[in-house]
Amino acid sequence: MAHGPGRAALYAAVAAKGFRRYATYRAATLAGIFTNTVFGVILAQTYLALWAERPGLGGYDQAQALTFVWIGQSLHMAVAAMGGGSEEELMERIRSGDIAVDLYRPVDLQLWWLAQDAGRACFQLFARGALPLAFGALVFDLALPASPGTWIAFLTAVALGLLVSFGIRYLVALSAFWLLDGAGVGQLAWLVGMFFSGMMLPLNVFPGLLGEVARVLPWSSILQLPADVLLGVHTGTGLLGVYAFQLAWAAALLAAGRALQSLATRRVVVQGG
Amino acid sequence: MADPAAPPRPAPDPVDARFGSPLTEGLRTYRLVVAMWVRSTLTYRASFAMALCVAVVANGLDFVAILLMFSHVDRLGGFTLGEVAFLYGTSATAFGLAHLTVGSMDRLGRRIRDGSLDTLLVRPVPVLAQLAADRFALRRLGRITQGALVLAYALTVLEIDWTATRLLMVPMMLVSGAALFGALFVAGAVFQFYAQDAAEVQNAFTYGGTTLLQYPPTVFTRELVASVTFVLPLAFVNWVPASYVLDRPLPLGLPVQAAFAPPLVAAVCCVAAGLLWRVGLRAYRSTGS
């Protein structure tokens, strides 16, 4: 498959369309911001009680724990923690058979969906992520860094986390080739992802072996690692280690997605064919 | 298989249906549509059994997060693990019952967008019943099962001084709580008549509500507790009656009689949601000219 500059422009255009497509639904965006903010308030007050009982739990002080909550709510939609990513559409296209049309296109299936999901995530990150975090910073005492360098490091970790998140969701979506109804797998994937990314509770609060296992699973790249980068836990070589970890998982998952894709497309039998 | 020689059964008199009250007719429709979806779900028995097991385990992760919190602390907001499990179990089970029975109502916005609501409107049966039963998802039994398991765990570890009133309080909480959440689902659907794209707002109240109620009221600010007691009376699902069962002071210094109010509060909310539904449905104008 050719990957010249024309190709890059094509995928950039797909990503831009993905961005604009989600930007069209303003009411939905506002509704989502409201919901994330409500959940943020509930979780923040729970964490306040938990950290009041055990100050310094997991190495976080109270402000850091609260910051973790609000970063989680801000990334919630961008990483499609509870669905709403491009994988749902892909799954539906596999189920309905429309995937045959996608396979006819002279583009790479995985890159096409990655581009579309990148556009979506970019919109969700800035349009849906910024306001809950701003609300949290206004109402609670957060530990947000002042240095722009830390923010850039954080956004880089978020971008890599999004790549990992897409890698997982693409695999989940491809399961529809075998199961047809992917709703069950999709739901299982969210709940496991919510738990092991730290959305329910930061991974450094997980005790013993469970904590160690959770930290090396791919989901830690999605929330725990970016949040720790923002909180200044990882700097210098530690930061490079975080990026290397995220990149390794992203590469492994995307390669697995590619392998599964070539296996799956050989199975495609269009109705009547 | 019908015998072709048999005389055709007389068609039911259309007037007959009109004699039934809207409520009985609605329930009949609901039962029929639900039975259809259940039958279709059970066609793939193995798939369903797997989905159910997965749902129980996956929903359980939510409670595991609470267990992990309690691996570091003995009490959260002054409540022990058993007490929090009691709150979690009652909240999750009540929510699960509502989610199973009327949870599909949140598809209304989508149906308005793609125009398929109009199909339901031309059928001579109540729209509310059709929508509530739409795509009835039996796998949602998973959440109820998981909630009930946590509740059972709570009841075994808690040392409650059981009286007849306290014992009756538990099923009363589950039924009233389910009705309260059900009213919330219907009200959320009404909201979608006016703001189809903003369907997600209702998640803040339904899913947000059940999450809130899983933790002790003492964890939250007084303003938050007051607003879910007096404005959106979710506190009557478990916080208020559970305080009586657990022999604790009621939140916000409410009198102990308030613990017996859930059925009344739920009934008022259901009537209010029903009225809202009528207003919303009448305000609905289909697309096109």
From TrEMBL, chain A:
Keyword hit for Repressor: no
Transmembrane segments annotated in the record for this chain: 27-51, 63-85, 125-145, 151-180, 187-209, 229-257
Task: Give the record's keywords alphabetically.
Answer: Membrane, Transmembrane, Transmembrane helix
InterPro entries found in the cross-reference section: ABC-2_transporter-like
What is the protein's species of origin? Streptomyces albidoflavus
Q: What's one Pfam family here?
A: ABC2_membrane_6
Q: What is this protein called?
A: ABC transporter permease
Top-level division of the source organism's lineage: Bacteria
UniProtKB/TrEMBL annotation, chain B:
Task: List keywords of the entry alphabetically.
Answer: Membrane, Transmembrane, Transmembrane helix
- Identify the InterPro entries for this entry: ABC-2_transporter-like
Q: Which segments cross the bilayer?
A: 48-73, 85-103, 144-162, 168-191, 224-246, 258-277
- Per its UniProt record, what Pfam families does this chain match? ABC2_membrane_6 (PF06182)
Q: State the name under which the record lists this protein.
A: Transporter
Organism lineage reads as: Bacteria, Bacillati, Actinomycetota, Actinomycetes, Kitasatosporales
